[in-house]
Amino acid sequence: MSTDNSENQSSNNILQAYAKAFQNYVNFKNRTSRYDYWGFILVNWLIIVFLVLTDIFLLKTSSPATSIWENFMKAYSYVLIIPQISAIVRRFHDTDKSAIKWILLPILSAILLMFIFAITVEKRTMISLTSMLILMLSIACFVCLCRRGSEQDNEYGSAIVESKSQRIKGLIIPIVLCIIPIIFVLIIGVVAGYSNAKIQHKANQTADSVYGLLVSAKGLNGLPPIVEENQAGRTGEILQKGMVSLGGEMNIKLKNGLYAVTLTEVTSAGCEALFSYNWQENSDFLQLQTQNNVDCRSCTMQVPCTLEWMYK
Q: What's the pTM?
């Protein structure tokens, strides 16, 4: 393992920077340029993304290699601990800062403050204060890691020579690594919002369709309409009824990719009346059934049934 501090040239590319981080696996003494450090972090980040995506794919296929892959991911994460710490220490050295003063002491101070918070303040306040403290330390550490290295020799080694291109890339890489997760979160938010809006729209269409059928449906032997038109009320994606002529509460919600309409507290007469209506008039209708497929004659005032419509 190399600990030679005479090597004062930045890596030619990020792959070389990644390899250099492992060559200096336990080197806590010398210096690492901004480009070398962030090149190592970028390659490592890409590898982790690849490992996670592959793991997700293996989980979907239920492959026997899944457990082997997960163990490999764990082993890789453990292997990374030491070179990541040593790279951080050397990066601080490159800016002519002591890792003990700028990393270890703040961490120990933060741990001490956490214990003080735990003793003196309530749990919620302690969590808030601890979160703020960790955030502040993380920001301070990130800023130091992004600083340009000292152009002069210092007590940690000779000045590392970087080209103009390497200096620019060494600053761009951490910015990109910060922006990508933000963009990713925004994309997920947009996709989730679109999906929810689509479900909402479909739920409203289904609610209107089912409600129209229920209003116009007539029961057997002159029973009143299944739903009185002025008794409907909608809340969000769910159509709710306070009272229904042949049942209690009605709900419409998404269930396994289909829209399930349930009507509770249905009596025997109400159940037969509902089954007498031609629900197939609606092209999206799939089926009407009682919960647990019980016979309508089993529905009583004491033990009412629940009916369920399924729509595409």
A: 0.63
Alpha carbons 45 and 24: distance in angstroms, whole number: 19
What are the pLDDT digits (tens) for 34-55? 999 999 999 999 999 888 888 8
Token duo for residue 54: 């592959």
Tell me: do 174 and 204 sit in the same domain.
no
Q: Is residue 191 part of a domain?
A: no
Q: Distance between CA atoms of 17 and 35, rounded to whole angstroms?
A: 8
Q: Same domain for 112 and 231?
A: no
| CA–CA dist 95, 76 (Å, integer) | 29
CA–CA distance from 34 to each of 30, 90, 148, 151 (Å)?
13, 10, 6, 12
Reduced to 3 states (helix: H, G, I; strand: E, B; else coil), residue 279 is helix
Cβ(268)–Cβ(247) below 8 Å: no
- 7-16, 50-59, 187-196, 244-253: least confidently modelled range: 244-253
In a domain, 248, yes or no: yes
Residue 189 lies in a domain: no
116/220 same-domain check: no
Structural domain includes residue 192: no
3-state SS, residue 151:
coil
* Contact between residue 7 and residue 33 where contact means Cβ atoms under 8 Å apart: no
* Residue 114: domain span: 14-179
